Amino acid sequence: MSNRDFETGERMKDETQPHDLQQASPLYVASLARGMVLLESFRDGAPLLGITDLVRITGFEKNLVQRLTNTLYQMGYLGKDQARRKYYLTPRILTHSFNYLRSRKLFALAMPALIDLREDLHKAVNMCVLNGTDITYVVRLWLKYYHEASLFGESLPAYSSAGGRMLLSFFSDEDALALIEGMERRKLTPHTRVDPMELLDEVRKAREQGYCWQAGEFIEKEISVSAPVSDADGKPAAIIVTSLLKKVTPETCQDFIDETLPSLLATASSISRLAGAPA
């Protein structure tokens, strides 16, 4: 593993299996971990979950699920629909998201420049960080709503994302390959690369070029170009410029790269300087 501790650091490989609660460390608090696993059950468009649902999703015993949900309800992290006897997340969860975003000066400093980049290119502009084997969006600026995932906090597989491959390039080849091999790699479209060595080649290209692009690997006809930014601690994030192409060909992809890359790289460099990134 690289000595760069960005977002997940040495914990990254463990976090790819959040439901593995059998930890040897005496400092590991299994009850806390179980509570977090239960909170993570509220995903994939499931706003309301009952005890039976949570037992099925978590694999925990019913009495444990009842104790966890009651504790989280009393703490204000879960609300309860009394009529349907089901639980839902409350806005208190967002407090932690806000505190995280405030803790990284990079994100606040980046926002004006990202807005200018969107206006300059007339393209969707996002910023993401690596979160285990996924990327998580911390900024989302779009021109029009063209798919349902338009809010910050969404996570996508790193292997199929230009931003993910860009962030993986901050690892050594050995560590990047280990992470790639630990991912659940699926063909999201007919064009999605899933072979570990082919993906490692893309990561190497990103490291050498200082940018990364992919087309049609996550959403058909979608193209993304990504460049890295970092703060004074050297913790990286990735800016992603995204658009939909009428037709994906080598020529249309190159035209998009030529159109967006100069402004993207200039913006990334400017943000990193503002954040005090090492030269």
Structure characterization notes:
- The chain has 279 residues and is an alpha+beta fold.
- It contains 10 helices and 8 strands.
- The strands form 2 sheets. A 6-stranded antiparallel β-sheet has the order 5-4-3-8-7-6, with helices on both faces.
- Strand 3 and strand 4 form a beta hairpin.
- Helix 3 packs across helix 4, helix 7 crosses helix 9 and helix 8 packs across helix 9.
- The longest helix is centred in the last third of the chain and has 25 residues.
- It is globular, with a radius of gyration of 20 Å.
- The two termini are 22 Å apart.
- The N terminus is likely disordered.
Keywords, please?
single chain; 279 residues; alpha+beta; six-stranded antiparallel beta sheet; two-stranded antiparallel ribbon; 10 helices; 8 strands; 18% strand; globular; disordered N terminus
Report the average pLDDT across residues.
88
Q: What is the makeup of the main sheet?
A: 6 strands, antiparallel
Q: Helical element count? A: 10
Q: List low-confidence stretches.
A: 1-18
DSSP summary, beta strand count: 8
N- to C-terminal distance? 22 Å
Roughly how much helix do the residues carry, as a percent range? 40-55%
Q: What fraction strand?
A: 15-25%
Secondary structural class: alpha+beta
In the sheet with the most strands, the strands line up as 5-4-3-8-7-6
From N to C, what is the helix and strand string? HHHHEEHHEEEHHHEEEH
If you compute it from the alpha carbons, what radius of gyration comes out, rounded to the nearest whole angstrom?
A: 20 Å
Q: Which descriptor suits the 3D outline?
A: globular
